[in-house]
Design brief:
Number of domains: 2
Strand content: under 5%
Number of strands: 3
Number of helices: 11
Radius of gyration: 24 Å
Strand order of the largest sheet: 1-2-3
Shape: elongated
Distance between the termini: 45 Å
């Protein structure tokens, strides 16, 4: 490639990089603040390095893909910047963060073309996992999970012959009252386990349907694991006392339940690999 072309390309890349930083520096800083202060999205710090690794892993495919720029990429960038403006005017953080990924996708399409975008679609899609979902959707998910965890805990406690009365998301025991609050709804483990399930499925099996199954199974696994946590907290509170339902024991049980949930995910993946093994390529017969 002539030196003048390289200079133009790198100048364009630098100009795009500066413009991106100017547009999205505040958006990104607020996103980092959400990762830092919201335990539901603390995994966000891992998403960008992971997406970068997945893109680097495809470097040979990217080098071999034809370079065919598309003007639709520029239109996508303009539309995404418009979404950024709407998000800023409406104080809607979700739109401003979503527009950031739209701009990155548009830049790839405009500068490299559809072939490169198809190769990078999975790493770019991974970036969606770092964006907190809107509060209105979060609350619509969290409250049903609170009730589900409460019912599950009530059933297990009753099966263990422990007297319990449930009122909504509150479990009333003989010596204490347990409230399944939003933080105990299981949505935190659900979001983190879903992210882990997508990554785990990607690295353990090449088949798309198996990866999808592993990711989808994180939802019932997280619900069951959190229900067991609520039931376990109730059993501990009944036999040990109210102190078992708060403080260190309560926080530690969250980590234990997440490890158990990941163990359940691994068992499920092993079962699929054993009973539906990956087809091995047939050896090519040599001509006589």
């Amino acid at each position: 490639m002539p030196t003048s072309n390289r200079v133009r390309i790198w100048s364009a890349v630098a100009l795009i990089g500066v413009a991106f930083v100017v547009l999205y520096s505040r958006v990104f800083l607020k996103l980092v603040d959400a990762w830092t202060n919201d335990g539901n999205y603390s995994h966000g710090f891992l998403i960008i390095p992971l997406a970068a690794y997945l893109a680097w892993e495809r470097r040979d495919q990217l080098a071999a893909a034809p370079l065919r720029r598309s003007v639709l990429g520029a239109l996508l960038v303009v539309a995404s910047v418009g979404v950024l403006g709407l998000g800023v005017l409406g104080s809607e953080l979700f739109l401003t963060r979503l527009s950031m990924i739209g701009v990155i996708t548009g830049i790839v399409l405009f500068m490299l073309g559809w072939s490169h975008l198809r190769i990078l679609v999975f790493p770019l899609s991974m970036l969606l996992l770092m964006i907190p979902i809107p509060a209105i959707i979060f609350n619509q998910i969290a409250f049903p999970l609170q009730l589900l965890a409460s019912r599950f805990g009530e059933s297990v406690l009753s099966a263990a012959s422990i007297p319990v009365l449930r009122e909504g998301n509150v479990l009333i025991l003989a010596n204490t009252t347990l409230e399944v609050a939003e933080a105990c709804s299981g949505i935190r483990s659900l979001i983190s386990l879903l992210t882990l399930g997508i990554v785990f499925g990607y690295f353990t099996d090449r088949r798309v349907w198996v990866r999808t199954l592993i990711a989808a199974s994180t939802v019932p696994i997280a619900i069951v694991a959190n229900g067991l946590r609520v039931a376990g907290t109730g059993i501990a509170a009944h036999h040990i006392g109210p102190a078992a339902a708060e403080g260190f024991f309560h926080e530690f049980s969250g980590w234990v339940v997440f490890v158990v949930a990941f163990g359940m995910l691994m068992v499920m993946q092993r079962a699929v690999a054993r009973f539906v093994p990956t087809p091995q390529p047939q050896p090519t017969a040599l001509a006589a």
